[in-house]
Amino acid sequence: MTGNIISVDGFSSTGKSTLASKLAEHYNFYYLNSGLMYRIISHFALNNDCIINNMIKESQLINQLDNLNFDWMIDNKGNKCLSFDGKIFGEEMYSFEISDIVSSVAKLESVRSFLFRQQKKLAVKKSIVVEGRDIGTVVFPDAKVKFFLSADLDIRTMRRNKQIEENNISFDSMKVEDNLIKRDKIDSERKIAPLKKAKNAFEIDTSKKSQIEVFDIAKNYIDSNFKF
Ligand code: DC
Q: Looking at ligand 1, which residue's alpha carbon is closest to its atom 13?
């Protein structure tokens, strides 16, 4: 059993994390970034010899994930946050190395079904805002409220560059746009759980909107149509 679920799906760098975390804070829900889970698994694969020369050793990876779990933890600022194998991961998950491989890792059926089970478990008995690519379509098709975010590629590239700069992430700035294009293609064309808008999702084009404007649109949509 879960509580209320709000899904926020969409392309990379459309403002999903900002909106989802603001909504979670406003409604006092848990916040789950499922993209971060795929990044953590990619990081794990890179560090455990499961990716050699861009080739992913799927069965070796999935065997090593056995008995490892995602869970909720309280960080040193007192915030509820996601942990994997008892550890908390941060901005280092947004490096070029991980961004370059994550969509290929996310294509694998075994990885998706491992993370599907983990996502379901993290939502048990909780009201939660979950962001990702397949949340409103596959993971939580019964989510009470669904959003789908889109934005122009040049705006997304600018936002990503800003995030990289502000957080001192190791990333070749020339490769930012290429990486977004490559991931959009893999994420929306893959066979299992491709990125697409759920029929009943409310779409927001964030290209020309500030973070506050996007939040206000989402909050007004929720408050006028749903009761928690
Ligand atoms: O949201 P993000 O850019 O951090 O996500 C990283 C990658 O993870 C993205 O390119 C595709 C994958 N992903 C996915 O396949 N399904 C999800 N629900 C979330 C992310």
A: 35
Cα gap 96→100, rounded to integer Å: 6
How confident is the model over 44-92, as pLDDT tens digits?
A: 999 999 999 889 999 999 999 998 999 999 988 888 999 999 999 989 9
Query: Of 194, 214, 195, which is closest to residue 204 (Cα–Cα)?
Result: 214
pTM over cut 0.90? yes
| Contact call for residues 82 and 70 (beta carbons, < 8 A) | yes
Q: What is the CATH number of domain 5-218?
A: 3.40.50.300
Is 84 in contact with 103 (CB distance < 8 Å)?
no
DSSP helix/strand/coil, 149: strand
Segment holding 137, helix H or strand E: none
Domain boundaries, the chain: 5-218
Ligand 1 binding pocket (C-beta < 6 A) is 12, 34-35, 38-39, 102-103, 106, 132-135, 183, 187
Residue located nearest, by CA, to atom 8 of ligand 1 = 35
Distances (CA, A) of 129 to 2, 4, 113, 174, 187: 12, 8, 20, 33, 21
Q: What is the average pLDDT across 6-14?
A: 97
How would you list the strands of the sheet with 202-205, edge to edge?
30-33, 128-132, 5-10, 145-150, 202-205
Cα–Cα distance for residue pair 42/215, rounded to 1 Å: 30
